[in-house]
Design brief:
There is one protein chain. The chain is α+β, with helices and mostly antiparallel strands. It is built from two helices and five strands; from the N terminus they run βαββαββ. It has a five-stranded antiparallel sheet with strand order 2-3-1-5-4. Helix 1 crosses helix 2. The longest helix is centred in the middle third of the chain and has 21 residues. The N and C termini lie far apart (54 Å).
């Protein structure tokens, strides 16, 4: 090849923006209570989350649709499904919830993904034999 065949082409920068096509986001959350002996049912947990949405965003926020897919009463861990448009509202209301029945509490958001399968495992807790 001669040097004339190799023409210096200018570097081309192409910006690619991918819009998330997933209609839902899934959240794995854990409720940490001051009194660890306190237990909540699935209905109580959902009502608690709705009250947090209502206190932060009013009646419009309380109308945000989300599903409680799975809930473990022993560990107070839940899997939530929310429309992608409502993810920020739900997440912020969970973050700002600070008390349940006059005792301090906090929601810990463990994992968030547009894919439910991604929440089944956590590479940080992987045990290799």
């Amino acid at each position: 090849m001669s040097p004339a065949d190799k023409k210096d082409k200018p570097a081309v920068y192409q910006r690619v923006v991918l819009k998330n096509a997933s209609p839902y986001h899934y959240m794995k959350v854990c409720l940490v209570l001051e009194d660890e002996s306190t237990r909540l049912s699935a209905v109580d947990l959902k009502q608690f989350i709705i009250s947090g949405l209502r206190s932060l965003y009013g009646e419009v926020g309380a109308a945000l649709t989300f599903d409680l897919l799975k809930y473990d009463e022993d560990t107070l861990t839940a899997f939530l499904r929310v429309n992608s448009r409502g993810l920020v509202k739900l997440w912020s209301s969970l973050t700002l919830l600070g008390s349940y029945q006059n005792q301090a509490c906090a929601f810990r958001v463990l994992q968030v993904s547009p894919f439910l399968l991604a929440l089944t495992g956590n590479s940080r807790e992987l045990q290799l034999d």
